[in-house]
Amino acid sequence: MRVTVIGAGYVGLVTAACFADVGNSVVCVERDPARIDSLRKAQVPFHEPGLSELVARNAAAGRMRFVPEVAQGLGDAQVCFIAVGTPPLPTGQADMGQVREAAAQIGRAVSGPLVVVQKSTAPVGTVAMVQQIIDREMAARGVQHWVRVVSNPEFLKEGSAIDDFMRGDRIVLGSRDERAVTLMRQLYRPFNRNHEKIMVMDAPSSELTKYAANAMLATRISFMNELARLAEAVGADIEQVRLGIGVDQRIGSHFLYAGAGYGGSCFPKDVKALAFMAREAGLHAQLAEAVDAVNQRQKQRLFEKIAAHFAADGLKGRTFAVWGLAFKPNTDDLRDAPSIDLVEALLGAGARVRAFDPVAMDAARRLWPARQGLELVASAAEALDGADALVVVTEWLAFRSPDFDELARRLKARVVFDGRNLWDPASVRAAGLVYHGIGRGAADLKSD
Ligand SMILES: NC(=O)c1ccc[n+]([C@@H]2O[C@H](COP(=O)([O-])OP(=O)(O)OC[C@H]3O[C@@H](n4cnc5c(N)ncnc54)[C@H](O)[C@@H]3O)[C@@H](O)[C@H]2O)c1
Fold this sequence. Notes:
Strand order of the largest sheet: 3-2-1-4-5-6
Number of domains: 2
Oligomer: single chain
CATH architecture of the largest domain: 3-Layer(aba) Sandwich
Largest sheet: 6 strands, parallel
Distance between the termini: 65 Å
Bound molecules: nicotinamide-adenine-dinucleotide
Structural class: alpha/beta
Shape: elongated
Strand content: 5-15%
CATH class of the largest domain: Alpha Beta
Helix content: 40-55%
CATH topology of the largest domain: Rossmann fold
Number of strands: 14
């Protein structure tokens, strides 16, 4: 099939590359000149495991090409995906500017029958809005083509995006138009072989499904973070509690980790957008608002623990090694990452920070081009040079089993803050270190 994808970010580029890989002819439209330059050299401008190889292979085979404008990229496409950003406005509302613009560009360029697939995460009513914009633009040109907008939210996770796309749990299609749905079924057939994954529903239900999924996952995390505080207060260990509830099949063991708070480009903004959507509908999404509030507070938690530990003589002049900057492992995405709150809080308190992340160093240099007090270093070991304490913020595999004896030798204050509960407190203490985790009340009490 002939497919156009507008937006070559994490979602658009993965969508484009996966459809190209099963034999479709795909044009990627990307307006960012730096992104388009690197894509034309088959270089992926961000870190996503396996994506560079997939893009290089399909570009070399002529199944993927890159253009800067919708007018050049739409041609005689049968399907056009909108995979542009929907960042949050200060009110929490999703900023629909990029989606509106993409819709208008489609309406101005479309020259035949087309299914437009709204893949960006966007509030209920967006499919209808995109349809209206396209119809209006066609009317202004005096043309009439069969164009139908279908909702198709994306559930991939950064870090395992290709596998999630190719072998996802479900493919949700929001449309009641039979012709459009038939075409979409045909397009997704290669990813729907093992068992039926396609769910067809009305567009509003499809749009809300995406927010419901992210809000549910974020709720589990905030719930565990709230329980972690209680565990600290009453002398329980949240890791034991997690195992104790996770085996219950009604609960399940995923997304039950207490930590430094959730981040990334999706959960924070989608929970806020859900709450905004509710307000617009005259409702109060109490739970979503609480989930967001708990998370905001949790992002301060590591700093609070550090400040409390060093309360006697303060943080001024101290140096902290920070391991992990990306909002989660296997990505270089720093959007809304808890590391940002921590680094800024430490610097604000007059401390120095030596930070390392296995893949997010370029992204960190772009975020903090020259931040006084912050050194972005080349390895986890180098981060320890002259450090008083170590703080782990991202649960990269490489940080899971460090040499605690070496940490004890190198850290001046011999203390570690485990923001992801990666380590066994007893093993850390056996090396002569003070251990602070998240919600490890019983474990923390032993060290006091
Ligand atoms: N990142 C994720 O893990 C993820 C997962 C599921 C859903 N989503 C949703 O998918 C959408 C895209 O997310 P992302 O992380 O890929 O965003 P992104 O910001 O990384 O990428 C969007 C890209 O679209 C480009 N763009 C915007 N308007 C354009 C236009 N008119 N023409 C050409 N290019 C245009 C931008 O330059 C940018 O490169 C968002 O709504 C997001 O919430 C993201």
